Amino acid sequence: MASVPVAVDRSRPVPDIVTEIPGPKARAHVVFDETWTSRSLPRAYPIVPVRGSGVTVEDIDGNLFLDFAAGIAVTSTGHSHPQVVAAIKEQAAELIHFSASDFYLPIYAELCHRLAELTPVVGGRARAYLGNSGTEVVETAIKLARHATKRPYVVAFLGAFHGRSYGSISLTASKAKYHAGFGPLLPGVFHAPYGKIDDLRWFDEVLFDKLAPADEVAAIVVEPIQGEGGYIVPDDGFLQGLREICDRHGILLVADEIQSGAGRTGTMWAIEHWGVLPDILLSAKGIASGMPLGALIARADLLEEWGPGAHGSTYGGNPVACAAALATIDLLEGGLIANARARGEQAFAGLRPLTGRFPALVTDVRGRGLMIGIEFDTAEHAEEVQWAAFQRGLLVLECGRSSVRMSPGLTVTEAEMDTALALFAAGVADVAGEHGEVLAAAKAAHAITGVEAAG
């Protein structure tokens, strides 16, 4: 590969597309990648990024994209935020690895303390456990709930996505293909309907009456706002109703904030919008700005019941990832959560008129803060809008059955949001037939790779 600059050229406008999309180097790399990597990897479209700054990504051909996908809502502080990079460099120069499972690691305890202080849980006093990813802490939550309650059953929700390892994929119910060929899955898992107040009747009328006694249910695991399932916001009162059911029957309420947390919705945790306290809260993705880290924050008494060796991880809470997380939390509390609220209001003001301009195409705009879902009439149209936006230099991702999500870094500026909204509206117009030649180009490019993103 020819030499490339070490940083994004900030003098160029964004987006700045200088080749056909995808470009020649990207096409060549797709062939190379698909020769050597696992075929299980779901690729949304053939962008081959080489560097990023804020919400700008440069690909292998030198094209600049406006990134409103953020690595599936991971780069919460934007790409390569200077404070996060400095924290990573400083920690890497001092200590890269020392397992907290066997030794006392200062920065591990410091991050657990910080997370416990900023996470409201039932009873007010929390402790934390650190893993490598979201799916790992989902597994941890299943173990902890069963151990603490001595009960076998766990309830998740239709439309949920909790990960791809055996326990977490057993809770996942957003698409049947995630289960295909892997059964039997973890026993003792039930799936409830999600989001509507009337759905809460399922617990008494179906689950507790016909399937499992309430006193044998260990936990209800819920995404306060569903992520991969479509950025679905529940009815007001739904999460409060779940809390009441849990309190009535001694069931633990587990809030999976892996995608919705870390400031994305304009509060540190999405569940705060409804004033509900969980027993266990799970975080990953944006909490460390792209470094591999998952966190389980729980009522202190639950984690105090575990004895030494009950759970652990060789790499979980790696010092470098912990340093990135501490820098991330500083940035979130230092203004990025407030910016997520402001830019979210700007986004909804710009997107909601699309339902009037294209009523047959855009059927809903929903979300909180910078967790934004746009629903289309068909899955095909959602896919085509994603591709039309890509051709124009805007990265978004499909989710759910027929939705597109916007989840930019929380550093996004007012001007960048204005640009993204204009590009997205133009992409919708392409699909509506107003700019047919752009959509034709998008469909031709689509032939290079399949379309899917999950997480």
Describe the structure in brief.
With about 450 residues, the protein is of the alpha/beta class. It has helices at about 25-35, 70-75, 80-95, 105-120, 135-150, 165-170, 200-210, 240-250, 300-305, 320-350, 355, 380-390, 415-430, 435-445, and strands at about 50-55, 55-60, 65, 125-130, 155, 190, 215-220, 250-255, 280-285, 295-300, 360-370, 370-375, 395, 395-400, 405.
Structural class: alpha/beta
Number of helices: 14
Low-confidence stretches: 1-5
Shape: globular
Percent of residues in helices comes to: 25-40%
What is the H/E order? Answer: HEEEHHHEHEHEHEHEEEHHHEEHEEEHH
Strand order of the largest sheet: 4-10-9-8-7-5-6
Q: How much of the residues is beta strand, in percent?
A: 15-25%
Task: Characterize the biggest β-sheet.
Answer: 7 strands, mixed
Distance between the termini: 31 Å
**DSSP strand tally:** 15
Question: Can you give the mean pLDDT?
Answer: 94
Could you tell me the radius of gyration in angstroms? 22 Å
